[in-house]
Amino acid sequence: MTGQDYALIAGLVVILLLGIVALVAGVRKSRRAQLPPEQRSPFPGGAGAETGERDQPPLTDPAGGAGAGAGAGTGAGVSAPTLERPEAAGTRFQRLKARLSRSGALGNRLLAILSRGDLREEDWEEIEETLLMADLGLGPTTELMDHLRTQAKVLGTSDPAAIQGVLRAELLRLVDPSMDRALKIEHVVGDDGEKHPASILVVGVNGAGKTTTVGKIARVLVAEGHDVVLGAADTFRAAAVQQLSTWGERVGVPVVKSDKEGADPASVAFEAVRQGAADGADVVLVDTAGRLQNKAHLMDELGKIKRVMSRKAPVREVLLVLDATTGQNGMRQAQVFSEAVDVTGIVLTKLDGSAKGGIVVAVQRELGVPVKFVGLGEGADDLAPFDAEGFVDAILAG
Ligand SMILES: Nc1nc2c(ncn2[C@@H]2O[C@H](COP(=O)(O)OP(=O)(O)OP(=O)(O)O)[C@@H](O)[C@H]2O)c(=O)[nH]1
Question: According to a count of CB atoms within 10 Å of the terminal CB, is the N or C end of the chain lower?
Answer without folding.
Answer: N
